[in-house]
Amino acid sequence: MNTYLIYGNDYGLIKREIDKITENIRDVVKYDLSAYKIDELLDDASCISLFGDKKVLIGENALFLTATPGNVNHDLDYFSRYLMSEKHDNIVIITVIADKLDERKKIVKTLKENSKVIHKEVIDQKDFPRFVINEFKSDGYDIDYKTANYFVEYVGKNIDVLLSEIKKMMIYKGGDKKITISDIDDISSKGFNDNVFDLSDAIMKKDFNKMFSCYKDLIVLKEEPIKIIAMLGNQFTLVYQCKLLSKQGFMGKDIAGILKVHPFRVKLALETDYMIYELEDILKKLHDLDYKIKSGKEDKNIGLESFLLHL
């Protein structure tokens, strides 16, 4: 089965699953299904890769699988026929940032019956140390609970940053599989969250002078652009989700419960001046930038600066 459905409220966890599936595959194409029809993705899926091997078609923002109304008229009968046909050479990954799908829709049932379904639930902050332990353990590294908890407190409680720091630690340790507090002090990035929070806060308030001041500070601290992009993606995703839920009539407290975040974060998100269509455009640009940098198509520093200049 070469079709996947990945959904959940944390884009970082969804992206991690995508990275696992697409590892070592050169031909990866993304479609924003809040702007493009699923028909186009499926037509592309029937074509042979330019590299002569498998290719991956990723359909992001599949809002038609949720109760959120979309503006695109997808050919869902075509999608159903594709799902129920027996063999597909290429890989199709459908994703949506939502904790629940609309089970009343026929296409949701068809997709669940004919694809590999991965639901990434938001990790409770109290479970982060255990998450860190499992991530290290999966690659043969050993870290005890006390050290894992120190690691989380040191680098922050953002999934993208945690995964980035775990990978960095593994590279640093090499053949030595025991992670210590001393290792964390030596190699892990401290203070990143505070600095990038100031950056994202300036962006949300459209204070562009402060934004570039904060960005220069991060560069002086030699913070990785990939980490900054991940944090910004997380922040803009939260604002986007809050705005969508607010538009559907949910109040701040309800939104906090649905997204499992602090009510104050929801309050700040709803106070931003960005419109939903602007947020969709920004998220698409961040996703494209992340892909171009990781595929070697764009310099990470130039790409991030260009993104900030065009906000």
Tell me what you see in this structure.
The chain is α/β, with parallel strands linked by helices. It has three domains: 3-120, P-loop containing nucleotide triphosphate hydrolases (Rossmann fold, 3-Layer(aba) Sandwich), CATH 3.40.50.300; 125-190, Helicase, Ruva Protein, domain 3 (Orthogonal Bundle), CATH 1.10.8.60; 193-309, Up-down Bundle (Zinc Finger, Delta Prime, domain 3), CATH 1.20.272. Helices cover 56% and strands 10% of the residues. It contains 15 helices and five strands. The protein has helices spanning 11-22, 38-45, 76-84, 106-113, 128-138, 145-155, 159-173, 181-187, 192-204, 208-220, 225-247, 252-259, 263-270, 276-294, 300-309; strands spanning 3-8, 27-32, 55-60, 91-97, 116-120. It has a five-stranded parallel sheet with strand order 2-3-4-1-5, sandwiched between helices. α9 (192-204) crosses α11 (225-247) and α11 (225-247) packs across α12 (252-259). The longest helix has 23 residues, at 225-247. It is globular, with a radius of gyration of 20 Å. The N and C termini lie far apart (40 Å).
